[in-house]
Design a protein that fits this description.
Number of helices: 15
Number of strands: 0
Strand content: under 5%
Radius of gyration: 21 Å
Helix content: over 70%
Order of helices and strands: HHHHHHHHHHHHHHH
Largest sheet: none
Oligomer: single chain
């Protein structure tokens, strides 16, 4: 499994598949999950098999198999879209200790997607996700502490969660807290985290950092506008147009 995983990470899917097939035949549930991930973008037959592999892994007690199957149901990937079933399976995987699934079901409760909106339950699952080491779960938990959703507002705990996460979004939220919160306002820290979020590729961070640099270092500003534009950020596109500069093609749908 380790060799196949390494091949997959290096973009050598075709070389990984035969090794994964051998492991699947031997009952390795982790190989079932990875092979399912690879086949999910393949032919119609391969896509159908990817669902079967996730189910087989889940039946073997693999929470990642259940989580992947939940994702497929939630967005209708290679199977009929059923958000409620996706939520049920995310919950099942989360109850088995899968930190990423805990974050997923927390997001569903946050938006009321496939379940009734419930901030208390979202907070519960984000907390479980963060405890399990999921960076996105930590960031979402930090958001809840910062906004007082599903819990009492607690900026120090929000900062702690964002720092532990270290994700681009978490870094940007640290910037916002140190910029805007009266009790924690610190321009030096706000600027530090804004720059970090831009360097990590967070589009809002890239745009805001570019705007802060435009009068001092236009080359840097344009560099970040271009990077954010490629990711589909409309504000970055608008800034390039305002400056009379060419707009690179976006790789994603504009937001």
């Amino acid at each position: 499994m380790e060799k196949a995983s390494e091949l997959f990470k290096n973009g050598k899917k075709e070389e990984a598949i035969p090794l994964l097939e051998e492991n699947v035949a031997a009952g390795c549930t982790s190989s079932m999950v990875l092979l399912g991930v690879i086949l999910a973008d393949g032919s119609e037959e391969e896509r159908t098999r990817s669902i079967a592999l996730f189910k087989q892994a889940g039946e073997g007690g693999d929470s990642s198999g259940i989580r992947n199957l939940a994702y497929c149901y939630a967005i209708g990937l290679n199977i009929g879209k059923d958000k409620a079933e996706g939520a049920r399976l995310y919950t099942k995987a989360a109850e088995m200790g899968n930190a990423r699934a805990a974050c997923n079901i927390g997001v569903m409760y946050d938006y009321g997607n496939g379940v009734d909106q419930d901030f208390d339950k979202a907070f519960y699952w984000f907390e479980k996700s963060a405890e399990g080491g999921c960076s996105r779960g930590m960031t979402n938990l930090g958001e809840y502490y910062a906004e007082g959703k599903g819990t009492v507002k607690n900026i120090p705990l929000a900062i702690e969660m964002f720092e532990r996460s270290g994700s681009p979004r978490a870094l940007f939220r640290l910037h916002q807290l140190y910029r805007d919160d009266p009790g924690f306002k610190n321009d030096e820290k706000a600027n530090h985290y804004l720059k970090l979020s831009a360097e990590k590729g967070y589009t809002k961070g890239m745009v805001e950092y570019g705007e802060s640099m435009e009068n001092y270092d236009k080359e840097t500003a344009v560099y970040y506008y271009n990077k954010a534009t490629v990711k589909g950020n409309q504000a970055a596109i608008d800034n390039l147009v305002r400056l009379g500069l060419p707009v690179p093609e976006s790789k994603r749908k504009r937001k």
